[in-house]
Give the backbone structure.
Amino acid sequence: MKNPPRVAAKETTLLGVTLMLVSGLGFTCSILIASMATRGGIDISTSNVLRYFVAAMLLLAWHAASGTPVRINPRERYAALGLGFAVFLMGAGYLGATQYIPISLAVLIFYTGPFFIIIISRITEKEPITILRLTAICIAFSGLILALKVGSAGSLPIIGILFAFAAAIGMASFVTISSLTIRTASPQAVNLHSLVGGTLLFGLFLLIMGGPSGSITRNGLLLLLGSGFSLAVGFITFFAGLERIGSVRASILMNAEPVFTIIIAAILLGERLSLGQLAGAGLVVIGIILITGLPDSARQKNT
């Protein structure tokens, strides 16, 4: 006997939420491991090239082992390769921002992406801009301010802020274009093409900047292999979750990533979380519950 449509939809949403949370954890672990490698002497641009290359190769190996086709129609192929630019914009924009402004502020600006996503999705996918969605985004964003302990911006270089907003636009473009492309193409095939496109752009950027400038040790390479593996897990589960819950809810769930980063870094480095950070993490969780925990009928009423 088949499950009623409402039960099946609820199970699909729950699976999508779980996959997106695993995705956030994968991205978090990838960033933390890569930071360990850069502290060991590998420059950031080389780190980006190597870990994205590893992620792309792992995904290609997964396709080969499972027999899943990687070919997609030319229209979707060009769109998927174009996603590589969004991948590069996210990485290069965030990296550029941290050279000029505090990391916490760069992360906060980066996570204005959901506001862009809800606007773009209104145009591209006819997603309604509901009171519930706006409330959930604002609560989660307020939680990030507390969790990241962001102070006054003061007189900061405008170029750093522009870099961070470029990364936010890259994130919004990646999520919304991915959501449209996977309607007619295999999500993981789109994923592979976007990773390949991003890796090529990171490689080109490295060459333009004069090539590797740091030392690459055996331990550093092992760390980047681990970072690349975590990155592959992050992207694979992201596309699988996006297929099930859509771009708007996926963008809210992405707010869990910096919270994961703070908690895991505190565990690994022995740092104590302040009451404000714990309260901020709680607000992010509340925002996630608001956008994912209510039935579709309740969401539609909040227009």
The radius of gyration is 19 Å.
